[in-house]
Specification:
44% of the residues lie in helices and 11% in strands. Strand 1, helix 8 (140-157) and strand 2 form a beta-alpha-beta unit. The protein contains 15 helices and ten strands.
Length: 408
C-alpha cells in the first residue's frame, strides 16, 4: 500500500473514531483505533482519541498509560500533559499528578485566568522575612476545597502570607483566615516576594493522600445569616435536605454530572423536606417538584454564598451533584451526599464511597455510564434510613427532655 493510501486510511479511521466518540460509542471507537495503533506508526492524534475512548469507559489505568507514553514522546504537548495530570490524580497518584497539573494553563479555556507574575513561584520551603502571595484561580468549588492549604502554607513558609481570593467567597475566607492579610481579587495589587496559586500549593507542599483531610470544619457560616434563615424556616417540617441537581451549564462536563429534578423523584418517599438551593436556569424546576416530594424553593432568596452557607449550617443533609456547594458544605463539616457520574472529576478518585477530603461525605457513583436511576434508587433507600434515624434521635432527645427533673 502506498504511503498516500495509508494516510488516507488513517484519516478515514480518525474521522470514524471521532464520530463514534461524539455519539458516545466509546467501545466502537476503541476497537477501530486499536487496529490502527497495533499496526504501528499511528499518529499522535489517534493515540489521543484512544486515550479519550478509554477514559470514557472507565479504563483509567489504560488511559493513563497512553497519555504517559504521549508525554514521553511529545513532552511539549502541554494539553496532553494536563490530561495526564487528571488521570494520575483520579488514580490517587498525587506525587506525579501534581507535577503534571502545573500544565493546566496550557488549555485554551484556562490561559485567560493565568496570573502573569514576575516573581518566583514558591517551592514549599521556609522563607522567613519574605512576603508570599497565595491567589485563587479557578472555580468556587476549587477555592473552598483548597482554602485549607493556604493556612498550611502560612505555617510551612514562615512568611507573611497574603491570601487573595475572589470577591464572592471573600467573607467566608476571612472567617477562616482572619482579618489581616486577605484581599479580594481585582483590588489594588500588593507587594510580595514570591507567589503561589491556590491549586499549585499541593505541588509546592508535596501533598499526599495520607495528609488528608487535615483541617476539618475550616469553613463556617455567618451567625447573622444563620439567624435569618432559622427564622425563615421556622414553620418548615424537618428533616431538611438541601438539594442541588445541576451544575453550571457552561461547565465542560455538565451534561455528565447534572440531572433534572424529576429524576430525583424517588427521594421524595423518604418524607424529608427538600430545600432547593439550586441556582441558575435549573432552579425553576423547583416550582413544580415531582409528585410526593415536599420542596421549599429558596433559590430566589439566596443572594450569595453566605446565604448558602447559613442554609447548609441549618440543614440536616445536603444532596447534590458535583458542584461548589458540595465543597462549601464539606469544608464546613456538614453531612453531604454526592451524585457522581461513571467517570468522575479527578478529586473524587475511584472505587470508594467516601472522600479523603471530607470526613462523613458519602459518594453515590454511577456503575454504568449515563445511568442515574440505579444510583438514585440506592440513594432513596439510604435516605429513608437517614430520615428514620433522624426521627428516632429526635424522639429520644424529647424523651430525655420530658423526663428531666425540674430545677429547684
Amino acid at each position: 500500500m502506498s504511503q498516500a493510501g495509508t494516510s488516507h486510511d488513517r484519516a478515514s479511521v480518525h474521522q470514524a473514531a471521532s464520530e463514534r466518540i461524539a455519539a458516545q460509542d466509546f467501545e466502537g471507537a476503541e476497537a477501530l483505533l486499536r487496529d490502527v495503533v497495533a499496526a504501528g506508526a499511528a499518529p499522535m492524534s489517534m493515540w489521543r482519541l484512544l486515550a479519550m475512548a478509554l477514559r470514557a469507559q472507565g479504563k483509567a489505568e489504560a488511559g493513563r498509560d497512553v497519555l504517559a507514553m504521549l508525554a514521553r514522546q511529545v513532552p511539549g504537548d502541554l494539553s496532553n500533559r494536563f490530561d495526564l495530570a487528571e488521570s494520575l490524580l483520579l488514580l490517587g497518584d498525587f506525587e506525579r499528578g501534581w507535577q503534571e497539573y502545573r500544565y493546566r494553563y496550557s488549555l485554551e479555556h484556562t490561559q485567560s485566568i493565568e496570573r502573569k507574575v514576575q516573581r518566583p513561584r514558591w517551592n514549599g520551603q521556609p522563607i522567613p522575612g519574605q512576603t508570599l502571595l497565595i491567589h485563587d484561580e479557578q472555580g468556587y468549588g476549587d477555592t473552598f476545597q483548597f482554602m485549607r492549604m493556604a493556612r498550611w502554607a502560612r505555617e510551612r513558609s514562615q512568611a507573611r502570607v497574603i491570601f487573595e481570593v475572589n470577591p464572592e467567597t471573600l467573607s467566608i475566607a476571612r472567617r477562616m483566615w482572619g482579618e489581616a492579610d486577605i484581599v479580594g481579587r481585582g483590588t489594588l495589587p500588593v507587594t510580595f516576594d514570591q507567589h503561589c496559586e491556590l491549586m499549585s500549593l499541593p505541588m509546592a507542599m508535596g501533598l499526599k493522600l495520607t495528609d488528608l483531610p487535615g483541617d476539618v470544619g475550616y469553613l463556617s457560616a455567618d451567625p447573622e445569616r444563620i439567624a435569618h434563615w432559622r427564622a425563615r424556616l421556622t414553620d418548615v417540617p424537618r428533616p431538611w435536605v438541601a438539594t442541588v441537581w445541576a451544575g453550571r451549564p457552561e461547565h465542560v462536563n455538565d451534561s455528565n454530572r447534572s440531572v433534572s429534578l424529576d429524576q430525583l423523584a424517588p427521594l421524595g418517599a423518604s418524607g424529608a423536606t427538600f430545600l432547593s438551593i439550586q441556582k441558575g436556569p435549573a432552579s425553576s424546576q423547583a416550582q413544580t417538584p415531582p409528585e410526593g416530594m415536599k420542596m421549599v424553593s429558596l433559590s430566589d432568596e439566596i443572594r450569595d454564598f453566605e446565604d448558602t452557607a447559613a442554609i447548609l449550617h441549618l440543614a440536616d443533609l445536603l444532596i447534590s451533584v458535583d458542584s461548589s456547594p458540595v465543597h462549601l458544605a464539606g469544608g464546613m463539616g456538614r453531612p453531604v451526599w454526592v451524585l457522581l457520574p461513571f467517570v468522575p472529576d479527578w478529586r473524587w478518585l475511584l472505587g470508594r464511597d467516601d472522600s479523603p477530603w471530607y470526613p462523613g461525605m458519602r459518594l453515590f457513583r454511577q456503575q454504568t455510564r449515563s445511568q442515574w436511576s440505579p444510583v438514585i434508587d440506592r440513594m432513596a433507600v439510604a435516605l429513608k434510613q437517614f430520615v428514620a434515624a433522624w426521627r428516632h434521635q429526635r424522639h429520644e432527645r424529647h424523651e430525655r427532655h420530658d423526663g428531666a427533673q425540674p430545677e429547684a
